[in-house]
Amino acid sequence: MSHAADLPVWVAVLVSAFLLLGAFLTLVGSIGFYRFKSFYERIHAPTLGTSWGTASIVISSMILFTVLQSRPVFHEILIGIFVTVTTPVTLMLLGRATLYRDRSEGNPGVPPMDAPLSGRRDTERR
């Protein structure tokens, strides 16, 4: 059972454009993940695909099902919200855990730990 025959051409073009944009952004994030060498560089690349790529695919799904069901469909927004909220938190936790592990093992190439600001005088902060 295909509803493709029931879709107006402008809806099919709009949904296809958003799907292609989402797929392209996800591909760019995947290529960046492959090309970067260290974990600290790689941690940033997938966020492109999970934020803007997911948003584009969710928008295309909302448009398609709104037209097919003849009523506004908004529950896909929850998917976008959950992905947008959980991705940065997960990446920060992974980054901090890796940084802690690398510092405790004394691995080379790890960013140095900053000195706390509370021990400095006001003139030294500038």
From TrEMBL:
GO terms, molecular function: sodium:proton antiporter activity
Keywords annotated in UniProt: Membrane, Transmembrane, Transmembrane helix
Region (Disordered): 102-126
Stored InterPro entries: PhaG_MnhG_YufB (IPR005133)
Domain of life: Bacteria
Membrane-spanning parts: 12-36, 48-68, 74-94
Name recorded for this polypeptide: Multicomponent K+:H+ antiporter subunit G
Organism: Aquamicrobium aerolatum DSM 21857
